[in-house]
Amino acid sequence: MKYRDLLVEYLKTGVKDNNDPESNQKIVVANIFSTVGSLLTLIFGVIACTNSNIYLGIMLLSISFLFFYAHLIIRNNWFYSPYRISANLLTLSLMLLMIYLIYAGGVDGTGPLWIYVVPPVVLFFGGLRKGIRNLFIFIIIISIQLFLKDPLLINVAYSPEFKSRLIFSFMTVSFLFGVYEAARRNSYATVMKISKQFEQQAMHDSLSGLQNRRGMIANIEKEYARSKREQSDMAVIMCDIDHFKIVNDKYGHDKGDEVIKTVAELFSSELRKQDSLARWGGEEYLFLLPVTTGKQALLLAEKLRKKIESTLFESQKGTFQITVSMGIHQFQVTDDIDHAITAADTKLYKAKKAGRNRCVL
């Protein structure tokens, strides 16, 4: 189990939590490819040197070093964008090796058969557009090698049939992998879109469009950590619509839903960009106000309370008004999140007990 953990840790070198899933996946694949590639070329290089094929051996050992160096770039974070540099190095090293294998022929003229490794690697690391461009350049280079018959470009006599079939089969494989890469990217985009939709649904209230309790808790945790780190003020407001049951009973649940949505819109229109608002449950709302003192939160609460009080709602039974009660709490040094929300809720209870339609700090 220990060796397995070490292997997983090795392959996940360079993976970061703030990366998107596809970037982390590519980093893992780059580590796998550089490791396997360096080992294989090292073994083949040693075998070639043992069999007195010195030039092939030197080439394979050089590529082995470049493959492993690509992993070291990610491991040691040597450049501004280590993965991109590593992926480009892996792609270039692989293409150079294939060009050399076509030139030298490899073992018994089988070297060119390795070129089919190029399309999936180039398209995966380079993406569709860059990958197609690199494959196009590669095809031009090996076509010149094969058909110009210049001894500086090729050192093996391949039959015309072999050369033409090699090029056309390689182009076919490249095309198929291009189609696959396009389908993969499209599928990934679809999955990410669906994932974001589910995340939106999980974190937001379907009726009001506001954050729900789960979404707000995540937001408070983030802002609470930032507030402690920067030693800045932060306040919360717990709000409740007064006598909301009467609205539902007298005017109907559809009108009650309309009230919930309208109140949410009125509240949202008065908030700053950094402020957050959630439907905490039923007819309750919770405000999160970063870089805000309790007194500043009270001023906002009073403004919102008066705005709601002056809003008229139309129904078949005539026009009606509603009021809200609010409890405000400024985060203290000793507060945790649960205590701060409970404190705001306690002050909301005091506002209701004192007659409703008021704010308590």
Model description:
By secondary structure, the chain is α+β, with helices and mostly antiparallel strands. The protein folds into 2 domains: 2-200, no CATH class; 213-360, 2-Layer Sandwich (Alpha-Beta Plaits), CATH 3.30.70. The chain is 66% helix and 8% strand. It contains 11 helices and 5 strands. It has helices at residues 2-11, 21-50, 54-76, 82-104, 118-148, 160-203, 213-230, 244-251, 253-269, 294-309, 337-353, and strands at residues 234-241, 276-281, 284-290, 324-330, 359-360. A 5-stranded mixed sheet has the order 2-3-1-4-5, with helices on both faces. A hairpin with a 2-residue loop joins strand 2 (276-281) and strand 3 (284-290). Helix 3 (54-76) packs antiparallel against helix 4 (82-104). The radius of gyration is 33 Å and the shape is elongated.
Which helices and strands occur, and which strands form pairs?
Blueprint lengths: L1 H10 L9 H30 L3 H23 L5 H23 L13 H31 L11 H44 L9 H18 L3 E8 L2 H8 L1 H17 L6 E6 L2 E7 L3 H16 L14 E7 L6 H17 L5 E2 L1
Parallel strand pairs: 4-5
Antiparallel strand pairs: 1-3, 1-4, 2-3
Helix pairs in contact: 2-3, 2-4, 3-4, 4-5, 5-6, 8-9
